[in-house]
């Protein structure tokens, strides 16, 4: 238990302590913090108390504007820091609890803080690792017999995206312009995307970097992963349909990707490990691992129309449905010798479950627009309308606490006038 009050349904009990970067009206300098209940513990204020054998001469990392330097220190530093913070925040530890002057400087309510991207993201990779999603989309466009491409069950399919338009939760996204071809018998047209969609994803941040030319083995992959965030990879489906052959998504995805501000560590998620999806055929040795590395993370997607006080949960899914694990994604990513840099972001791809109410995109939920969704206020949707806010939440549930990610939200604004 912590001396900070934490409600039973809070995403941020002492068992979590996710890392983020925030600023306040009184101090506009972005700085690292951890979430505890409704508050943020400012690590720049209490850095002198993070004084274990590994961190005692590295406390400067908590005064920087991103988490990159801290993330680059590696797993032992992460574990030591987490243990120190849990001790400092525990109900029977007086160091911070009884120092009212320090407490008044160290804690900020989340409602009074502005959140920033937690890390500088140099590279971004998006995978395509949900069997259900890949099967659904393949069935729509190629038929049930050819739903999966021949390579899909042999390797984690992915593409190297762009990092410049990855934004933190609460940032609005504009409807894009682009080329589309609504009628396959007519030439393409240039104009607004009419089929705007969300994609329910999760992503992980690279902490420890690797060297060029040296693959990361599957049994060491865990050591390179700092933690996870929620993600909405906004998608312009009509632009995507026209542009993706032969090299895959480009402008249809580059309009924006939203992530939640808090990075939840694997130490916090470890109690929620669950069996991996059975893979057939058996992966090549460089991708094979027996240890469980899937997680029971409950996920929800809500659409809230503009000028409406009522949102509608349109999907409930779970990260445990993933076919390819994060360890497999990382090992595959580096098998050529491609190096990892601290702050690299790697996404799961759309997460869809086995039932229609667990699909992770409107493309699937409305089956290409043929089955409109009715919202709580009576409006219907096949794809997103301007003014719609998409809110993704996720958490793991224990007997008496939750390990959550907060929310990942963004509003779709009208296109910028050309």
Quick rundown:
By secondary structure, the protein is α+β, with helices and mostly antiparallel strands.
Low-pLDDT ranges:
none
What amount of the residues lies in strands? 25-35%
Amino- and carboxy-terminal Cα gap: 55 Å
**Describe the biggest sheet?**
8 strands, mixed
Radius of gyration: 22 Å
**Could you say which structural class the secondary elements and strand pairing correspond to?**
alpha+beta
Number of strands: 26
Question: What is the arithmetic mean of pLDDT?
Answer: 97
The amount of helix comes to 10-25%
Helix count? 10
Morphology call: globular
General description of the model:
The structure is a single chain. By secondary structure, the chain is of the alpha+beta class. It is globular, with a radius of gyration of 22 Å. The protein has ten helices and 26 strands. The longest helix is centred in the first third of the chain and has 15 residues, at 75-89. 17% of the residues lie in helices and 28% in strands. It has helices at residues 68-71, 75-89, 94-97, 100-106, 131-142, 237-243, 251-254, 266-269, 326-334, 362-365, and strands at 19-24, 27-36, 39-42, 107-109, 113-116, 124-127, 158-160, 166-168, 173-174, 177-180, 189-192, 196-197, 200-206, 225-233, 235-236, 257-259, 264-265, 273-274, 294-295, 298-304, 312-318, 345-347, 373-374, 380-381, 389-397, 402-413.
């Amino acid at each position: 238990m912590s001396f900070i009050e934490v409600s039973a349904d809070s995403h941020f009990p002492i068992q979590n302590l996710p890392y983020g970067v925030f600023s306040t009206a009184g101090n506009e300098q972005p700085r690292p913090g951890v979430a505890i209940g409704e508050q943020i513990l400012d690590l720049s204020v209490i850095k002198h108390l993070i004084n274990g054998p590994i961190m005692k001469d590295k406390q400067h990392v908590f005064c920087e504007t991103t988490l990159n330097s801290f993330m680059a220190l590696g797993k032992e530093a992460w574990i030591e820091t987490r243990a120190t913070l849990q001790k400092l925040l525990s109900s029977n530890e007086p160091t911070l609890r009884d120092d009212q002057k320090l407490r008044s400087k160290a804690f900020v309510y989340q409602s009074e803080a502005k959140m920033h991207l937690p890390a500088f993201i140099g590279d971004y990779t998006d995978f395509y690792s949900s069997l259900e999603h890949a099967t659904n989309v393949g069935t729509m466009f190629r038929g049930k017999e050819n739903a999966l491409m021949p390579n899909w069950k042999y390797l984690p399919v992915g593409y190297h995206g762009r990092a410049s338009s990855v934004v933190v939760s609460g940032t609005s996204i504009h409807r894009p312009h682009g080329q589309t071809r609504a009628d396959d018998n007519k030439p393409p047209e240039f104009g607004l995307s009419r089929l705007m969609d969300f994609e329910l994803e999760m992503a992980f941040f690279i902490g420890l970097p690797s060297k060029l030319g040296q693959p990361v083995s599957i049994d060491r992959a865990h050591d390179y992963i700092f933690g996870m965030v929620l993600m909405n990879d906004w998608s312009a489906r009509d632009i995507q349909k026209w542009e993706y052959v032969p090299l895959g998504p480009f402008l249809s995805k580059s309009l924006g990707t939203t992530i939640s501000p808090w990075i939840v560590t694997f130490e916090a998620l470890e109690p929620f490990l669950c069996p991996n999806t059975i893979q057939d055929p058996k992966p090549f040795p460089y991708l094979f691992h027996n240890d469980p590395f899937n997680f029971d993370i409950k996920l929800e997607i809500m659409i809230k129309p503009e000028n409406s006080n009522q949102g509608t949960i349109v999907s409930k899914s779970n990260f445990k449905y993933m076919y390819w694990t994060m360890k497999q994604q990382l090992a595959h990513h580096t098998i050529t010798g491609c190096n990892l840099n601290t702050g690299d972001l790697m996404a799961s791809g759309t997460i869809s479950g086995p039932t229609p109410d667990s699909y992770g995109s409107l493309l699937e939920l409305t089956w290409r627009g043929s089955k409109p969704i009715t919202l709580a206020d009576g409006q219907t949707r096949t794809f997103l309308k301007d003014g719609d806010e998409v809110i993704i939440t996720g958490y793991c549930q224990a007997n008496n606490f939750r390990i959550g990610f907060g929310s990942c939200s963004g509003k779709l604004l009208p296109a910028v006038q050309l």
